[in-house]
Specification:
- 45% of the residues lie in helices and 12% in strands.
- By secondary structure, the chain is of the alpha/beta class.
- The chain folds into 2 domains: 10-192 and 228-278, Rossmann fold; 193-226.
- Strands 3-2-1-4-5-6-7 form a 7-stranded parallel beta sheet, with helices on both faces.
- β5, α5 and β6 form a beta-alpha-beta unit.
- α3 (72-85) packs parallel to α4 (110-138) and α6 (197-205) packs across α8.
- The protein is globular.
- The termini are far apart.
C-alpha cells in the first residue's frame, strides 16, 4: 500500500463505514492521507474512525459525519464541513452504493428501485458537483468512482444496480472530458467480486429472486473467497496519488488490468479509448459484415 504516497493530501470517502470503503480508508491512512468519512450508519462510522485513528501518524486526522449521499442537503453539509476541517481537499471517493431490489423488473418495488438509482447514481453526481468548484479553483483533483460488474455486463434480476453502475461510469467518462483542462482526473474502479454485505444480500434473497445461475456463482464465491478488498484499495491509492496524474476517463479493473504498470504507457493511454465503455461492432469480432 505504501508504494504510492498520499502524504499531505486530504480525501473524502463515502460509504466508509464497512467493506471496501473501510478498506480504502485504511489504505489511505497507511499512505499518509487525512480523511473525511461519511456514511448512513453513524455507529459503524464512529467505530471505523476509532480504529483508523490508531494507525494515524502524528498530525494525521480522521473526521467523520453521518450523511445520506442521495439527499442534497446532506451532501452540502458534508462538503461544507469537510472544507472547514481540511481547507484543501485533493481526492473524492464515491464508494457509497446499494444493490437495490432483487427480482424481475415487473415484480420489484418501484420506490426501492428508484432509491438505488438515487444512492448509486445521483449520490455520486451530487458529491462530485459539490467538490468540483474547489477542485477547479485549485486546478487539481481526483474523483474516483466505485463501479462494478453491473457496468460491463447484464445483471438479470438486479436491474437497478446494473443500470446505475453503467450510468455512473458513462457520467465519469463524460465528466473527465469536462474537467480535463482543470487538472482534475476522473476514473472508475471495478473492484472485482467482493465478499461483502452485498454478497450476503444476494444469498439471503435466494435463487428465486436473483436467478439460479447468479445465486450459484455467488454461493461459490462465498465458499471459495472473492477478490481481496486490499486490491481495490491499492488501486484507489494509486489513482489518488501524483503517480496517476493524467490518467482520466477510464474504467479500471482492480483484479484484471495491469494498472500498476500504467505509468509506463501514459502517452498511449491518453490517445486511445482503451478501458472505456464502448459499442461492439461486427469487425471487432472478426466478422466481415456490418460496415457501410
Amino acid at each position: 500500500m505504501m508504494k504510492w504516497s498520499l502524504e499531505g493530501r486530504a480525501a473524502v470517502i463515502t460509504g466508509a463505514n464497512q467493506g471496501l470503503g473501510e478498506a480504502i480508508a485504511r489504505a489511505y491512512v497507511e499512505a499518509g492521507a487525512n480523511l473525511f468519512l461519511c456514511a448512513r450508519d453513524e455507529e459503524k462510522l464512529l467505530n471505523v474512525q476509532e480504529q483508523l485513528r490508531g494507525f494515524c501518524k502524528p498530525g494525521q486526522k480522521v473526521e467523520v459525519m453521518r450523511a445520506d449521499v442521495s439527499k442534497q442537503e446532506d451532501v452540502e453539509r458534508v462538503a461544507s464541513r469537510a472544507l472547514e476541517v481540511f481547507p484543501h481537499i485533493h481526492i473524492l471517493i464515491n464508494n457509497a452504493g446499494v444493490y437495490g431490489p432483487k427480482g424481475r423488473i415487473e415484480d420489484v418495488n418501484w420506490d426501492e428501485w428508484s432509491q438505488a438509482i438515487e444512492v448509486n447514481l445521483f449520490g455520486s453526481i451530487l458529491m462530485a458537483s459539490a467538490f468540483l468548484p474547489h477542485f477547479r479553483k485549485n486546478k487539481y483533483g481526483k474523483i474516483i468512482q466505485l463501479s462494478g460488474g453491473g457496468a460491463t455486463a447484464p445483471l438479470p434480476f438486479i436491474s437497478a444496480y446494473a443500470a446505475s453502475k453503467a450510468a455512473i461510469v458513462r457520467f465519469a467518462e463524460t465528466l473527465a472530458e469536462e474537467v480535463m483542462e482543470d487538472g482534475i482526473d476522473v476514473n472508475s474502479i471495478a473492484p472485482g467480486a467482493l465478499n461483502t454485505r452485498l454478497l450476503d444480500e444476494v444469498l439471503e434473497a435466494g435463487p428465486e429472486k436473483v436467478g439460479k445461475m447468479f445465486y450459484e456463482r455467488s454461493l461459490k464465491q462465498k465458499t471459495e473467497g472473492g477478490a481481496p478488498l486490499e486490491r481495490g484499495a491499492e488501486l484507489s491509492v494509486f489513482l489518488a496519488s501524483s503517480a496517476s496524474d493524467g490518467i482520466t476517463g477510464k474504467l479500471i479493473s482492480a483484479v484484471w488490468d495491469p494498472w500498476d504498470k500504467f505509468t509506463e504507457h501514459m502517452d498511449e493511454m491518453k490517445k486511445t479509448d482503451i478501458y472505456t465503455l464502448r459499442r461492439i461492432v461486427p469487425r471487432d469480432r472478426g466478422m466481415g459484415w456490418g460496415d457501410v
